[in-house]
Design a protein that fits this description.
The structure is a single chain. The protein is of the alpha/beta class. It contains ten helices and 13 strands. It has three domains: 64 residues, Orthogonal Bundle (Arc Repressor Mutant, subunit A); 104 residues, D-Maltodextrin-Binding Protein, domain 2 (3-Layer(aba) Sandwich), CATH 3.40.190; 101 residues, 3-Layer(aba) Sandwich (D-Maltodextrin-Binding Protein, domain 2), CATH 3.40.190. The strands form three sheets. A six-stranded mixed β-sheet has the order 8-12-7-11-9-10, with helices on one face. A five-stranded mixed β-sheet has the order 4-3-5-13-6, sandwiched between helices. Strands 1-2 form a two-stranded antiparallel ribbon. Strand 3, helix 5 and strand 4 form a beta-alpha-beta unit. The longest helix is centred in the first third of the chain and has 28 residues.
């Protein structure tokens, strides 16, 4: 079975997601096409790779062997591609990066835009994922590096750079809170607030802080989407609570104001640039990392 085949890519996605439907969403490929490739692969190999269960698909012993080998082949192929890219220098190349939803606007698109002007032959593949999933994706060799919030400890990962990102109130630029340099958490009781809801990471520390301080947040709305929180604040529904990076773009354009919350019990978020210790980075990936590290040093 060729390393470059669609079958192997589809098989690994189904094995990792546990269902053809989830793999279809991940790959943006029709479920019928994925199912067809899996069935053809099983026929060619002469063995079942999955057990078909009511709850989804489970790997057979043969499937587990193929998954292990497939991941290794994929990593070897990436390493080979990296070496070939390095031979080409910085004229061409590609890099796969993982980012959280909060970075889909703001500094990162600007950094990549400048890179496009100076190195038009470099292709950047951006994958938006939850920070909690990024470590394993890196270790599996599916990306060159990740920008993640509050990375957990994994011995395979190396943090090349990190910055603490403050949490604060967001408001319309002419709102009284927007004129403050910092603000106490108690303002939550004085103004209507749009509150982050699960699965957004901010909801938990806010819930704990409310319980510890006894300050009752005057909730006017709850949203589990960062853009919705910003939209509600922009429309004057209330002030919101987010991280600085969540509103970096709007603050730069004077569309929203950000006021850090002054409270020792409210820890800032940590934004970390992480790589797999064992991965050989391509020149393209190293160039992008260098640009991001420079931004960390100059702007954050």
């Amino acid at each position: 079975m060729p390393v470059f085949s669609r079958f192997l890519r589809y098989f690994i996605a189904v094995a990792q997601q546990g269902s053809i439907r989830k793999a279809s969403d991940e790959l943006n490929i029709a479920a019928s096409a994925i199912d067809r490739q899996i069935l053809q692969g099983e026929k060619l190999l002469g063995t079942q790779l999955f057990e078909r269960l009511p709850t989804g698909l489970r790997l057979t012993t043969a499937g587990e062997l193929l998954l292990s080998s497939g991941i290794r082949w994929t990593r070897d192929l990436r390493a080979l591609t990296t070496q070939i890219d390095n031979l080409k220098g910085l004229r061409q190349g590609s890099a796969d990066i993982l980012i959280p939803d909060a970075l889909t606007k703001g500094f990162l698109p600007a950094v990549l835009g400048r890179l496009r002007e100076t190195h038009p032959g470099i292709v950047v593949n951006v994958h938006v994922r939850a920070s909690r999933d990024m470590g394993q994706i890196l270790v599996d060799g599916q990306a060159d590096f990740a920008l993640m919030f509050n990375p957990g400890h994994m011995r395979e990962l190396f943090v090349r750079a990190h910055r603490e990102i403050p949490l604060g109130f967001i408001s319309q630029p002419d709102h009284p809170v927007g004129a403050l340099e910092t603000a106490p958490f108690s303002l939550c009781a004085e103004y209507p607030v749009v509150i982050p809801a699960p699965p957004l990471a901010l909801w938990r520390p806010l819930e704990l802080l409310e319980a510890e301080t006894g300050i009752k947040i005057q909730a006017v709305a709850r949203a589990d989407n960062i853009q919705m929180i910003k939209s509600l604040v922009s429309e004057g529904v209330g002030i919101g609570i987010l991280s600085y990076l969540d509103v970096y773009d709007e603050v730069q354009k004077n569309q929203l104001a950000f006021t850090p919350i002054l409270n020792k019990k409210l820890s800032p978020l940590t934004l970390a640039l992480c790589v797999d210790r064992s991965r050989q980075l391509s020149m393209a990936a190293r160039l992008i990392i260098s640009e991001i590290e420079q931004f960390f040093a100059d702007q954050l």
